[in-house]
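hey so u asked for the seq, here:
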Amino acid sequence: MSRRIRLSAFIAAGLVVALAVAFFVSRAASSQPDGLNRVAIDNGLEQASKPSAVDGRAGVLGVTVTFALASGVFLVARRKGHG
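ran it, structure tokens below
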């Protein structure tokens, strides 16, 4: 039981760190277009738009979805291994 608690605590701590990094680092993202976006704008393939306010929600959502999908894959693989 002690090993399960340690593994759960490790996973929870990793998830908290990933969420914190995603939340705070995404605020530092540049509002300037990257190279591919710049080429699209220069060639008229994309309308230049106003940069939107950047907050941490997109990063948190990405981490949450990725964690949920990875957990689902792990559970399916684990069940197939037992049966």
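The chain is about 70% helix and 0% strand. Residues 57-82 form the longest helix (26 residues).
lmk if thats what u needed
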